[in-house]
Amino acid sequence: MKCEANMIERLTRALVVCVLVMWGVYAYVRGLIHEEPAPALHGVGLAVAVLTAVMFSLLGTGIWVVRRDGDRWRRIGIGLLLGAMAAAMALYALAPHAGGGFFFCMAGLWVLLMRLPLPWGLTVSGVTIASIGVLGEAFRSGGADLGLMSAFMGLTLGAVASRHGIAAQEAARRAEAANAVLAERSHLAREIHDILAHSLSAQIVHLEGARLLLARDGDRVQALDRVERARNLARSGLDETRRALATLRGEVPEPKEVIAELAEEFYASTGRPCDVEVTGQPRELTPQAGLAVVRTAQEALTNVRKHAPGARARVTLRYLADKVELEVTDSGGTEAVVQLGGGGYGLVGMRERAELIDGTLVTGPEGKGFRVSLRVPA
To answer: 253 and 289 in contact (C-beta within 8 Å)?
Structure first.
């Protein structure tokens, strides 16, 4: 829903810009034709036509090139925009009453003010405003065009304010990212606590049962089974703790590999199978998307062990064209639920992690069991 809203907003903005540009070009060409000197194939009219074509070509190409990645393209784009400004000044000297195309160069000046270091951008703006005044006094019958100069001054102030706003937004994003990292680390710390509490508590139960069986000269097969269960729980808890610590260090392995390990741990700790299905063409995910998939799968399977003992589990990972889907389902618990240790962040943490990267999380009952479905862009 959010992606669709952003797309509609971008299309609306593009449509408005196109309409304004087309109307501006029409108004400028219409005014230029009815002014003296008008574009022609000889004399001053030819110079007006050539300068108009050069200005629009440099302006359009410069705005397109400067947006490309890389310092080299950025420098080329800035050079083209400066050339467009120079062509507009020459055109203004020849046809001052038509505005000389300076209105269109406002777009170029805005880009320069946003791309150049602020002192250099203000210098270009100052030179442009001064040139409008000097050329107006020299070639325009009414003197300097104060309205055009004021428009460029307002444009400059708006660009400076926009730069400060972007800087503030970037600082806010960095702060939000830092808070997200701290929240994730807090979540991991709490989860490590839960893993150890669950694992150690369950081990104590099994080992105590084995001790009683041996003390009463009970069935040694049952005692051995309990010891093996305690060993498997210890191994599973250690693996989960290592994985949580690796995530804390920023090491995010491939989701399909982690899910296979989680399925093995689920079987080792519960004795119940966990089926895994991967569809689509596996590919490398962004760290944020990979982490969301891994943490959601781990949290969902942990919840099955805690809240649906005796249940079978199934994990499906789907690689789609522009997103990845994870689905974790269980068949419903068949044993009494015993709470061992405190609860983690659970569904709230999974949903918050998905929303941070424009993903969605859907949870709810499915048959006798429960379903967790994650979808993230990738």
So the answer is: no
